[in-house]
Amino acid sequence: MEPRVVTAGAVHLPERFSAAQQQGLLNRCRRWAGEPAGLHRVRMPRGGMMSVRQVCLGWHWSPYRYRRVTDDGRPVTAFPAWLGALAVECVTAAYGSADDFAPDVAIVNHYSGGARMGMHQDNEEASAAPVVSISLGDTALFRLGNTDNRNRPWHDLRLSSGDVFVFGGPARRAFHGVPKVYPGTAPPGLDGIVGRWNITVRQTGL
Ligand SMILES: O=C(O)CCC(=O)C(=O)O
Ligand SMILES: [Fe+2]
C-alpha cells in the first residue's frame, strides 16, 4: 500500500511486511525475549511499573537513559545489522531517502493483558534521526500528539500487524502513546503470537 503522511515527518506504511516476514520478525522477538538481557518489566522512577514488557538490542534503555548493560549488569543482546538495514529501507519508503540514518538500538515492547503505553517523548537519543516502529500481532490504537505537551491536538491511527510507522523531522519529538490494543485482532496465521509486539529502531547518537 501507499505511504500515508499523518503529519509532517510522520508516515504510516500499511502492510509493509508480508505474512512470512511478520512470522520471521515474530520468531526473532521471541528469541530475543529469551536472551540473558531478555524480556523484563520496566520500573519507573517513582516506583510504578510499565505495563509492557521490554527487551533492548544494542543499548539498554531504562528511564531515562541508555547504557551498555542492563540494570543488573547483564550484557545487552547485539543490535542486528539486518534490522538496521530493514529500518533504512522503511525510512527510504517513507521519505524517499534515508540520508545518513545509522540506527544502533531497538526497543522491543510486548503488550499483553491490557498493557498500554502512556503519552511520552522518545528523548534519550541525542540524534535527531527518525524512529522506525514495526507492529506485529494485535492491532493497536496509536496516538501521535504534538511536540509541546501530552494533550490535544493528536492524531489517532490503528497500527496493524505488518505495519510500519516512521516519525522523524518535525514529528521526531512528538508525544505519542498506545492507549489501547485490540485483543484477538492478530492475523490468525501468525504462529505463536500472544498480544502485540512492537519493535522501535532508533539511532542513539551516543
Ligand atoms: O508500541 C508502540 O507502537 C510505541 C512504542 C513506543 O512508543 C516506544 O517504545 O517508545
Ligand atoms: Fe515512544
TrEMBL record:
The keyword Metal-binding applies. GO terms for biological process: methylation; oxidative RNA demethylation. Pfam families: 2OG-FeII_Oxy_2 (PF13532). Its cofactor is Fe(2+). GO terms for molecular function: broad specificity oxidative DNA demethylase activity; ferrous iron binding; methyltransferase activity; oxidative RNA demethylase activity. Binds 1 Fe(2+) ion per subunit. PROSITE patterns: FE2OG_OXY. GO terms for cellular component: cytoplasm. The keyword Transmembrane does not apply. Residues 102-205 form the Fe2OG dioxygenase domain. Keywords: Dioxygenase, Iron, Metal-binding, Methyltransferase, Oxidoreductase, Transferase. SUPFAM superfamilies: Clavaminate synthase-like. Fe cation binds at H120, D122, H176. PANTHER family: ALKYLATED DNA REPAIR PROTEIN ALKB-RELATED, NUCLEIC ACID DIOXYGENASE ALKBH1. This is Alkylated DNA repair protein (DNA oxidative demethylase).
